[in-house]
């Protein structure tokens, strides 16, 4: 009897270097690279997925201004 895979294989989401995300911020996130830089301020990450970067941008833009 053929064995079933325990779970469907999850697609691998590639990590992209931050410099590449900054270079293409307008096309990927509809914002300037300065917005992504602000979202990454204080973070030591050198690679992110596009989904992670978008999440950081959304969080950054949603912050209250004092």
Annotation keywords:
66 residues; mainly alpha; globular
Question: What is the CA-based Rg, rounded?
Answer: 16 Å
Question: N- to C-terminal separation?
Answer: 65 Å
Secondary-structure element order, N to C: EHHHEH
Overall morphology: globular
Count of helical regions: 4
- Mean pLDDT, as a whole number? 90
Estimated structural class: mainly alpha
Low-pLDDT residue intervals, each spanning 5 or more residues: none
Approximately what portion of the residues adopt beta-strand conformation?
A: 5-15%
Major beta sheet, specifics?
2 strands, antiparallel
Secondary structure tally: strands: 2
Spatial strand order of the main sheet? 1-2
- Helical fraction: 40-55%
What is this structure, in a nutshell?
With 66 residues, the chain is mostly helical.
How does this structure look, described?
47% of the residues lie in helices and 6% in strands. It has 4 helices and 2 strands. The protein has helices at residues 18-23, 25-29, 33-40, 50-61, and strands at 16-17, 47-48. It has a two-stranded antiparallel sheet. Helix 3 packs across helix 4. It is globular.
